């Protein structure tokens, strides 16, 4: 319970929880059978709950609530999904600062191709997040407070999705290179007879003790590399699956809404797991 409290109180954890609910709504919206099942379940609830649910689909007060139709459920879930998306954008309001800072630090340190791909990924992600931030007044829809207007705001949000997709592509390529590097390192022994020893230097430890130390070091190194590979595989899988959402928006992919929701659900669990572990 303490772990969940810390997780849900954290910005990253809260954003993942909201994303999980949003993905569930997306899945139900994209799968007709689930929409029918959800409608039947809502209609089986006490009349007071059905009454308040029906208010979401009517502008006038309702004296007695009748059974919901599937179309009503779709409207209700669509409205819920939009509100959850807006709540997540509010949580991410200033995350672009962290993305640009991370890109600058990686650029300052330098490195191989994987590092430059990370720099590009963080930079693209920063552009995605900053476009989300500046269009927030337009998304909220408060009269006379819109900065860009409907047409320009829609264009900026489309470009934001394009930047997100480019960020995911660069991040996936970087993860592939890092994953290959872990297997390349495994082929090179880091300990062994004469490794790192000066010419003519004699061993001080006995053969049995020296062998035990090598085996212990090898086991520890193998565990470390295995954990690193699992983390990279989780990140790579999440980044590849996440491409479905922006890919559909910009028109580079043809994926139905249910599949996008499923991908969103899986990636939320994968990325949320890393955040969850921090509070163990």
Automatic annotation (TrEMBL):
GO terms for biological process: peroxisome fission. InterPro entries: PEX11. It is found in: Peroxisome membrane. Keywords: Membrane, Peroxisome, Peroxisome biogenesis, Transmembrane, Transmembrane helix. One of its GO terms (cellular component) is peroxisomal membrane. The chain crosses the membrane at residues 20-42. This is Peroxisomal biogenesis factor 11. The lineage of its organism: Eukaryota, Fungi, Dikarya, Ascomycota, Pezizomycotina.
